[in-house]
Structure to design on (109 residues):
């Protein structure tokens, strides 16, 4: 059996597709516990109550801890399933998160 080349693999799995991320949503949720996520939250050094735009927010990996810290967060993603989970998480903790169905290439106005 021949190994699959990168080009062949990318034709069957499109990681840029909305469908791919909608399918992954149910297993994607995690809290900001990795070294990178902690580093990024520290690096942001936000003032109390600042408003944050989290583009590509997924299920709230950064949006949820930012909102828990008292920041109003606008979570944007192009996968409806990701935003549905984000909204559930925000509602469960009454967090100041507003979700927006939005892709990088959309008009953000």
């Amino acid at each position: 059996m021949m190994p699959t080349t990168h080009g062949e693999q990318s034709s069957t799995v499109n990681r840029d597709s909305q469908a791919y991320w909608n399918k992954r949503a149910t297993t994607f949720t995690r809290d900001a516990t990795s070294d990178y996520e902690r580093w990024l939250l520290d690096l942001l050094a936000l003032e109390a109550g600042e408003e944050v735009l989290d583009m590509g927010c997924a299920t709230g990996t950064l949006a949820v801890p930012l909102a828990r810290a008292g920041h109003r967060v606008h979570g944007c993603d192009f996968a409806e399933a990701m935003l549905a989970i984000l909204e559930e998480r925000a509602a469960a903790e009454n967090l100041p998160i507003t979700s927006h169905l939005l892709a990088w290439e959309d008009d953000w106005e």
